[in-house]
Every structure is written in C-alpha cells, then in structure tokens.
Design a protein that fits this description.
- The chain has twelve helices and 16 strands.
- It is elongated and about 120 Å long.
C-alpha cells in the first residue's frame, strides 16, 4: 500500500500489522512525504496488471491500495490440470478470466564467462486464454516488459533485462539461449494442446499480426523452425502432419479444389493460415500438376463448376482448359471449340455436329453463374480464355456459314450436300 504521510509512519505500521493478522503473507507499505514522490509511485502502480500473477507461481493473491484510489484485488486459483482462474476486482466490479498456463525450467548451458551471481537456471511459461479470444501481449520477465510478442499468447522467460525492466539487454548470450528454449516450448505446447483438442487450429497462434521487434527476430525464426517439426498442420484429408509432409495448392485452391482429390494438401481455414504455412516452410504444388489431376478426374457438376470458376479467377490463361466445359449433350469441349451460354429463355437451337461453336450445358451454366461474381456480361468475360463468348444470333449464323463453306470446298460432293442440309436445318 502507498499513502502520503505527515507522521513517522506509526499509523501505517499499525495498519500493516492489521493486514498481517488478517492473513496476508506479505505486506509492503511505503509512506511518502512529498507529492512528487507519491505521484510517481502512483504512476508505477498503475502499470501493474493482473496477468503477471500467471507467471509468479509463488503468489496467489495481490491487493494494491493507494490513497485516493479504489483498491485493486487480484486472485489466482488452480482449476484443474494446467488451467488457472484469474479473478480481478477493480472499481466495484469483479471479472474472471480462464487461462491455460504451461511452465518449464531447466539448467542453462555452462558458460565460463558467467559470474557467480548470475543465474544458472531458466524458467519459461506460456499462457493461452480459454474463455475469450487471445490477443498479443508484452513479453514478461515476471512483470511485463515493453517488448511486444506478435503471437496471440502471453510469454514469460527469465531474461537479462535493462535496469528499468522494460527492454532486453543487447548482445546477451543468455537471452539467445533462453529465447530459443522458449520458442521450442511454445511449439511443443501448441502441439500438445492441439492433440488434446484444446486448440483447434494451432496456426492461429503462429500468425504474427505485426513485425517482430529486433530483439525477438531470432525467437521468431526459432518458433517457426520448431513448429515445422510438430504435427500441427491440418490436411484436407483430416490428418495433422509436419511441414515436410504436406503441400500448398495454387492460389485460391482451398476455395475450389474438390477435397476428395487432394487429401494431402494443407487446409487453409482462414486468411491468416497461408502466411503461417509459408513461414513454416510448406512447399507449393505446381499449378500444372494440380490442373492435370483435375483434368483426369471424373468431376460431378458442382465440382466442375467450382473448378472452372476457381481457375478463371485464380490461375493464368494457359490453365483455362476448354475440356473442363461440357455441352448440351454433356460432352467435353475440344480445344478448337468455342461456346455460348444457353439462351435465357427457351431451348438452345440445335447446331450442326460439325459446328465448332457449342452451347454450354444449362445446369453447368446455372452453377457457373452462381459461382462467379458480377453481371452476366462480366461472368462471360471472366470465362473468355475458356472460349466462352456472348451469344449473338447474327454472329452464330455468320460463323456457321463460313464453317460450312470451308467444309464444302474440301469435301466430296455427297458430303457437301449433307453439310448444306444441316446448315439449312440449323438456320
């Protein structure tokens, strides 16, 4: 407790004794005899925040009383296993936070340059909120420093820090060693919590929402290296594997690849997963290989529409294969074919069998229209490299006449007669 005082401290000492008799193990009291010192102390107490209790295992409760301010009371209690409840009483309101806290400790590597008064052991801790969304926070060395860790978790490590306890000491081999151990401990914690079902997607906790500060660059690298060796990456087929046992598909693959055809690819559950997977060193599948799998597969209508729309919006024109499209007879188009959407009303006209232009399957077009954004004309433009053209009766007639003339010129007379008849029937 802190208060301004005009006496020798007798009243304060008496109050301290009352608190000790009330059951407190430790009471720290400090009188101040000038406003400047008192206000400075008030500012420092305002920097205290309750979550540091997660990392000070010897403390179960702390109460801060400052003259002129409401008391703050924070209590920590074990729930079950590694779960911890943090009760925060401030300003006539009490809230409770639920956390998972994992702890580790060990011996530092022998260092002949380490002085006798320097620690030879280290402590680590990682805390994840279980009753609310996790957010990034400051790195703790028992108390929070000013160094932000961009991962969505809280971290504690016994590090060498500056005299104001806000920053890490530069060029500290001890810090490098401890941070490397913290990185491995974090990766192992995520892997274990994923296996226990506590963490559904470990990648959420490996996404950095800002750049790491310079003192933590080696920690960042070490985290991804350690995490890449753990089975934390979900595949489309439902397994969890290490980074070297899965691959990424081409751009947008998670939105249009049929899952049954690519069970081994990494599953992207959110926009933040992709940069994490790349940071973990997951290699990509070449678009040529992926499109070849799709080309050889027997796709149903829904899969076919999803594949065409996905390729149109994500892959270069050389992958816009016309064989993915089917005509009114459910036959795949050839590379020499162009095609038209079916008329919005009525049945499509029957075109001669030799016509290069085809009408798209009506059920397929309905699904493509639903999958592609924009106006009908914009949808057709997105499919232009698949050979899809806007239907125009005059243009279709002129095209049929030109094709018929070329066939008649290079065909026997009897074939020419049949071509003329088919052209007249179509017109």
């Amino acid at each position: 407790m802190w208060e301004k005082s005009s006496d020798s401290g007798g009243e304060l000492i008496a109050y301290v004794r009352q608190l000790r008799e009330a059951g407190y193990d430790t009471v720290i009291a400090s009188p101040f005899f000038n406003d400047k010192a008192f206000n400075k102390a008030k500012e420092q107490t305002a920097e205290f925040e309750p979550r540091f209790l997660l990392f000070v295992r010897a403390l179960a409760e702390i109460e801060i009383r400052v003259e002129g301010s409401e008391p703050r009371i924070w209590r920590k209690s074990a729930a079950s296993g590694d779960q911890v409840e943090l009760q925060i009483a401030e300003r006539d309101a009490t809230t409770t936070e639920s956390w998972i806290c994992r702890y580790a400790n060990g011996e530092l590597a022998e260092d002949p340059e380490r002085s006798a008064d320097q620690p030879s052991r280290y402590e680590l801790a990682v805390a994840l909120r279980t009753d609310a969304e996790n957010e990034r926070g400051e790195l703790h060395c028992y108390f929070p420093t000013s160094v932000t860790v961009p991962f969505s978790a809280l971290f504690h490590a016994t590090l060498e820090i500056t005299s104001n306890r806000k920053n890490l000491k530069d060029q500290s081999s001890q810090n490098d060693e401890v941070l490397a151990k913290l990185a491995d401990f974090y990766a192992e914690t995520l892997s274990e919590l994923r296996q226990a079902g506590t963490v559904l997607n470990a990648l959420d906790f490996l996404y950095a929402d800002e750049t790491f500060a310079e003192p933590l660059r080696l920690f960042e690298k070490a985290v991804y290296e350690a995490a890449a060796q753990r089975p934390i990456i979900a595949t489309i087929g439902g397994e969890h594997v290490c980074a070297d046992r899965t691959r990424l598909g081409p751009q947008g693959y998670d939105k249009f690849f049929p899952e049954r055809l690519f069970p081994g690819l990494a599953r992207c559950r959110s926009a933040s997963d992709l940069p994490v997977l790349k940071a973990l060193g997951v290699k990509g599948m070449a678009p040529d290989e992926a499109v070849d799998v799709l080309r050889r597969a027997k796709l149903d209508l829904d899969e076919r529409a999803s594949v065409i729309a996905g390729i149109a919006q994500n892959l270069p024109a050389k992958f816009h294969l016309r064989s993915f499209l089917i005509d009114q007879k459910d036959l795949p188009l050839k590379a020499s074919n162009s095609c038209f959407p079916p008329p919005t009303s009525g049945r499509p006209p029957v075109l001669p069998r030799w016509a290069r232009g085809k009408f798209l399957s009506s059920p397929l077009w309905d699904r493509l229209s639903a999958a592609l954004p924009g106006t009908p004309r914009e949808k057709i433009l997105r499919l232009k490299f698949f050979g899809v053209e806007e239907y125009n009766l005059d243009g279709v007639v002129r095209s049929l006449v030109r094709q018929a003339e070329r066939l008649i010129d290079r065909s026997p007379a009897e074939v020419g007669v049949r071509v003329r008849g088919e052209l007249l029937s179509a017109l």
